[in-house]
Design brief:
mainly alpha, 5 helices
Amino acid sequence: KYGMKTKHYLLPHRWQTAGWILLAVVFVVVNLLFGFDVWSVMDEAAFKLLIAGVYVIIGVSLLMIAFSEERQEDEFIRSLRGRSLVAAACVAFVLSVIWFCVSSINLMYFPMHEADDTKRWVFYMVDNYLSVLPMFFLYIVIFKVSLWINRRRCRHEE
């Protein structure tokens, strides 16, 4: 009787473009800041606030990219999107379990309060690496590469 209406959870395609632009701007600004060695003149609180801001902006841009439609969104692309999300979730789970085991064993034998600054820095960098942001990035990479491969195959079959 009534037309089947599907729920639409994705953002319009223009948000994906805006996300890529925002990510590129953050990348350029951070590299310029490193080039001018701005980090050395900042106090620790300002540095931490800046890094937190960079993480938030990167997170927003990755969300915009990951959850935006492609130009032509069809059932195949939705299926590819789902498979990419599952693959990224599996990788995230495996890396998280491995990191949990390694960090637990490491903390048993080498407590963090006895660690030098380099070890703490490495520990926190890996801890941040296993946060949500890299998993969004991984999902985007898997999805875009799979989409590119399938489009290329279709072009060669024609």
